[in-house]
Specification:
Low-confidence stretches: none
Mean pLDDT: 92
Strand content: 15-25%
Strand order of the largest sheet: 2-1-12-11-10
GO molecular function, one term: serine-type D-Ala-D-Ala carboxypeptidase activity
Helix content: 40-55%
CATH superfamily of the largest domain: DD-peptidase/beta-lactamase superfamily
Pfam families: Peptidase_S11 (PF00768)
Protein name: Peptidase S11 D-alanyl-D-alanine carboxypeptidase A N-terminal domain-containing protein
Shape: elongated
Order of helices and strands: HEEEHEHEHHHEEHHEEEEEH
Number of domains: 2
Largest sheet: 5 strands, antiparallel
Number of strands: 12
Number of helices: 9
CATH architecture of the largest domain: 3-Layer(aba) Sandwich
CATH topology of the largest domain: Beta-lactamase
Distance between the termini: 63 Å
């Protein structure tokens, strides 16, 4: 075979390879565009359904953790009072201050905090168990005990800003209203999702305790307590990973959850400014829409 014929065949072979590669990438690019188109249609469908639902909450934020993208938002960047949702970050920051197996006592001043959660003065608790019951029942005496140090709130605000909640303001560790006109903590709905994702990733064994309706825990002092979840719809949320409630007169009804939809995707949902009962009704509607879409 002449050199010229060999070169021509080699050239044709190379052209064939280039054409095959171009076709392959063209097909793959078409498939990618189709997938993106279908995903965008799915998100638009979700937005339409939530917009048309009778949601009482003033702010809603939905975030797809698995794909790191926002799905839905209504006033989701507006900073609002968050009530006891504040305890998500204050508990996470408090846990950073203790060794894993630390045991601490409930000070008598803690018992004077708003609400009776069954804890006893000088009762000794493992820090992890105290954190679980604090999140589950929104125990103000629990967070009072955990949140030690004169610079604690400074640490909480610094952490909030560091993880991306730039406009968050924590004036106390509980999120309770300071008075009739001033709330204890202000965060946007989208930033609550950010905080919830941070906390559950950092301490999954603590924060995932909030997916149960109740917990029976024994203190190191030997007393057994039964703690009820303030989220009364935990059994109605499929594949629940985390939840936290909040309510004050200024904040209204708040609720944040992380769950998995039927596609196995982790979804964070925060609602702010609903009513005491409306927060649960709002969340049920949103979860039912998100689960199968």
């Amino acid at each position: 075979m002449m050199p010229e014929q060999i070169n021509n065949r080699l050239l044709l072979f190379m052209l064939f390879i280039f054409a095959a590669v171009a076709i392959f990438f063209s097909v793959e690019n078409f498939k990618l565009l189709e997938r993106e188109k279908l995903e965008q249609q799915r998100i638009e469908n979700i937005k339409t359904k939530i917009d048309n639902a009778a949601i009482l909450a003033k702010a809603v934020a939905v975030y797809d953790i698995s794909h790191n993208k926002k799905i839905y938002g209504k006033n989701d960047d507006v900073v609002m009072p968050i009530a006891s949702l504040a305890k998500i970050l204050t508990v996470a920051v408090a846990l950073n201050n203790y060794p894993k197996d630390a045991v601490i006592s409930i000070p008598s001043e803690a018992i004077n905090q708003s609400g009776d959660f069954g804890l006893l003065a000088e009762e000794r608790w493992k820090v992890g168990d105290l954190a679980k019951l604090t999140l589950l029942t929104s125990a103000n005496d629990g967070i009072y005990t955990l949140a030690t140090g004169a610079d604690f709130l400074e640490k909480v605000n610094t952490k909030a800003h560091k993880i991306g909640a730039q406009n968050a303001v924590f004036l106390n560790s509980t999120g309770l209203d300071i008075d009739l006109e001033h709330a204890g903590a202000f965060v946007s709905a989208s930033d609550i999702n950010t905080i919830a994702m941070y906390a559950t990733k950092l301490y999954p064994e603590i924060f995932e305790a909030t997916r149960t309706p109740e917990l029976n825990l024994q203190s190191e002092s030997g007393f057994v307590h039964n703690f009820k979840n303030t989220n009364v719809i935990v059994n109605k949320i499929p594949n629940l990973i985390f939840s936290k409630t909040g309510f004050t007169e200024l904040a209204g009804g708040n609720l944040v959850i992380i769950f998995k939809n039927q596609r196995g995707e982790e979804i964070a949902v925060t609602i702010l400014g609903s009513t005491f009962e409306g927060r649960f009704e709002d969340m049920e509607k949103i979860v039912n829409m998100l689960y199968s879409l």
